[in-house]
Design brief:
The protein is mainly beta. Strands 14, 16, 19, 22, 24 and 25 form a 6-stranded antiparallel sheet that branches. Strands 15, 17, 18, 20, 21 and 23 form a 6-stranded antiparallel sheet that branches. A 4-stranded mixed sheet has the order 3-4-5-6, with no helix packed on it. Strand 7 and strand 8 form a beta hairpin. The longest helix is centred in the first third of the chain and has 23 residues. It is rod-shaped and about 140 Å long.
Length: 314
């Protein structure tokens, strides 16, 4: 009985002795029920922008000093070690089939040096480089000022000037077009021109195309002949032809008027020309008129009745 009483008092004494140390310390040596001395750790978890003071081994600290990159760290006994996944620089971790974070740089890659994201490639050459097919499941309707997109031979997207055009009408009603190789002064007034002067620029009686491509060109000229037969008896029965010229050289087919007789008010006619040309940057377009038959004065009719229209096809 004495031995049992002494042992019980010893156990009670040890428990009383240990209680305040468990409450106020994080690491303590105690004797278990077998009489073995063991080390007990009470690990703490802290959150903040500054490291905890006097940490013990296995303490955990949620480091919030960087709002964009919060870190979980464990005290190793001598320093704070960050708990994080490591991988090849540029890797983007994602959950694999087993739910465990994994990486696949050939499928998804971030080039932090150049600020480029690669999908299906680990060597992106643009801000977004997709090696494969892309799909957009929903889009808003286009607005009047929206631009078309096209790709270059390398698949890089660019805004396109396809369908960009311009329209000009005449203000000149005095130039005699019934004279061979006369430059038709049709660029008098502009109705519209897309992209300002970045694509089309008028200089005198010429139009300069600023960007290489394929262009649809249409010319409509309304003519009026003037009967001065008192001065010239050879002016009857004539017509006027027109032709496009590229950099001063006539090109393509002729457009011809109907018969102009200068008699009994048969002095009005028109000529129309349409062609599609492959042009280089800074090519110059003019309209050249030719006398087909007799002489006589043939002019463009009232202002705004003759037009030049151009539209970019590709």
């Amino acid at each position: 009985m004495i031995k049992q009483w002494n042992f019980g008092h010893i156990v009670v004494f040890m428990l009383i002795w240990a209680v305040p140390r468990i409450a106020h310390t994080q690491e303590i040596r105690v004797i278990d029920n077998k009489g073995t001395k063991v080390l007990v750790r009470n690990t703490t978890v802290s959150t903040g922008t500054s490291a905890p003071v006097a940490p013990v081994q296995n303490d955990i600290w949620f480091d919030t000093s960087d709002a964009d990159h919060q870190r979980v760290k464990v005290w190793s006994g001598s320093s704070w070690r960050e708990l994080t996944f490591t991988g090849i620089p540029g890797s983007i971790f994602f959950a694999g089939p087993d739910g465990v974070p994994t990486q696949d740089n050939d499928a998804l890659f971030w080039d932090g040096t150049n600020g480029r994201l690669g999908v299906g490639t680990s060597s992106p050459t643009q801000s977004l480089d997709v090696n494969g097919y892309a799909r957009i499941r929903s889009m808003d309707e286009a607005g009047n000022t929206d631009r078309l997109l096209k790709t270059d031979p390398n698949g890089v997207l660019h805004t396109s000037k396809v369908n960009f055009g311009g329209r000009w009408t005449n203000t000149n009603t005095t130039t005699n077009l019934n004279v061979t190789t006369t430059v038709v002064p049709i660029f008098g007034s502009n109705d519209y021109v897309d992209d300002g002067t970045n694509l089309y620029e008028v200089s005198g009686n010429t139009l300069i195309v600023k960007e290489a491509g394929r262009y649809d060109i249409r010319v409509n000229i309304t003519l009026e002949a003037f009967d001065d037969s008192i001065l010239n008896a050879n002016e009857f029965d004539t017509n006027v032809n027109v032709r496009l010229a590229l950099n001063g050289t006539p090109i393509g087919s002729f457009g011809a008027t109907g018969h102009i007789s200068f008699d009994n008010f048969n002095n009005f006619s028109s000529v129309h020309l349409s062609d599609i040309l492959e042009l280089d940057a800074n090519d110059v377009i003019t309209i050249i008129s030719y006398r087909e038959a007799n002489s006589g004065t043939v002019r463009m009719y009232n202002s705004g009745t003759s037009s030049f229209v151009i539209n970019k096809l590709r």
